[in-house]
Description:
Blueprint: E1 5-6, E2 9-13, E3 16-18, E4 28-29, E5 32-33, H1 36-45, E6 51-55, H2 60-76, E7 81-84, H3 90-98, E8 103-106, H4 111-114, H5 117-124, E9 129-132, H6 138-146, E10 151-154, H7 157-163, E11 172-176, H8 180-185, E12 189-194, H9 204-213, E13 238-244, E14 250-256, H10 258-267, E15 271-274, E16 279-282, E17 291-298, E18 305-311, H11 338-354, H12 361-368, H13 370-388, H14 393-414, H15 418-427
Parallel strand pairs: 1-12, 2-6, 6-7, 7-8, 8-9, 9-10, 10-11, 11-12, 13-18
Antiparallel strand pairs: 2-3, 4-5, 13-14, 15-16, 17-18
Helix pairs in contact: 1-2, 11-14, 13-14
Amino acid sequence: MSYKKLIPVIYLKESCAYADRALSRRLYDNGAVADPVTAAVRFSEQGADELMIIDMSETESGHEDAVSILRRITKSIDTPVLAGGNIRRTEDVKKYLYAGAKTALLSDAQESNMMMMKEVADRFGRSKLGLYYRGVEPDAVRMAKDNGLSVIFVSNEAEYTDISEDFAGIPAIIETSGDMKDVLASEGSYGVTGDCFTDCSFDFMRFKSELSREGFSLNKFESAIPFSEFKLNSDGLIPVVVQDYKTDEVLMLAYMNEEAFRQTIETGKMTYYSRSRKELWVKGATSGHYQYVRSIAADCDQDTLLAKVRQVGAACHTGNRSCFYRNLVETEYAQTNPLKVFNQVMNVIEDRKINPKEGSYTNYLFEKGIDKILKKCGEEAAEIIIAAKNPDPEEIKYEISDFLYHVMVLMSLKGVTWEDIVKELANR
């Protein structure tokens, strides 16, 4: 199904977040000036479908700062990011994509800058290319079509009207200071951004619900099963098991009535029914430790729900990450969850870096530095190739394990996490 998207823009200059291309208005969060990362996180939490980051810097150092901020933003949110501004060469596209952007928006459609489009498309794929429109030459339109831009961002409705025929078939994100409904109703619009997104606390989820009631197709939560078909307990409630969406860690158990379920679906924030207080409660409303919905599933009997959430802070009122922090019985077992194992090994490596241990091979590598670590990575990669030629399939698993360990030491040295790697693989 094709949805129309709500896509706020952060204009970056000198590490500040602005709401407009003229850099006349700062972005705010509940009345306070927001820094770029905070603004991005808040937009994401409030339900923005995508986010655009436009670098407005005028110096090379300012551009590098913008790339660094973009990297921090993409590490902090799951919302897809489109990045543009100051793309003068293929290397700039690479910087944006390597910093975590879903799409790089070429800076303008002047032929002098569009000549690199084919090179960029061949190297990174057409789906990674968009256009931050600021004027066009006829040959550039043909080039854009030939290279299959994934999206075009235009700064106002009149501008899009002027180019809509030339760029027919390329989805458009349109910035408007008027009624967003008119833009969303436009056949060529892929998404909309505008003046109402100048405060990062804007509630995208509620706005989507309002527009949906008016017939617009938007990306919002809708339950495949009505609440009336759930099997409730004697109090008219259904239990909800809550997990972290990344690690699958069980965080808590709570209950919902129909109103709590409806509000959760509409707002995207986990809302429960308190059996002791006999009232609805939004998780995090007082502590700030909100739970943002990623998915909700029903079990086979439809008498229990499983919610996967992005947990802010601690889930438990005691301050513990999970309510299930006290082991009653336990036996030793080998952990085989790949991400957990990788993170556990990485935690040990990080601990060795902070708290050196005499005789530690990991500390030996850190002491010798980057050249030694790279040499070992190369040696272990060669060992994998040799092992792969061996008819014994057992040998290769040991060599791959050695290689991964040394790569993790390199990752630690360079400040790269497994979450970064997994996110990059998911993007591909």
